């Protein structure tokens, strides 16, 4: 169980994850203070979509390999 936690924390410390977490923190702060601009919303949406898109692609690749590569 400890190995699983360590592996997940290690994966979380990738540059992509750090940028996403920091950007989400900035977004939350700006939302609370009412300072969100349309440009920031666009950039934030693109980065979040990229992050979760790559995560779901990784999961899909694992599922495809487990299924024997069937389409």
Describe the overall structure.
By secondary structure, this protein is mainly alpha-helical. The chain is built from three helices and no strands. Helix 2 (15-33) runs antiparallel to helix 3 (38-66). It is flat, with a radius of gyration of 16 Å.
What's the short story on this structure?
The chain has 71 residues and is mostly helical.
* Strand elements, count: 0
Residues in β-strands, percent: under 5%
Proportion of residues in helical segments: over 70%
Poorly predicted residue ranges:
none
Shape by Cα distribution: flat
SS content category: mainly alpha
Element-by-element helix/strand order: HHH
Main sheet properties:
none
Number of helices: 3
Chart the SSEs and their pairings.
Blueprint lengths: L1 H11 L2 H19 L4 H29 L5
Helix pairs in contact: 2-3
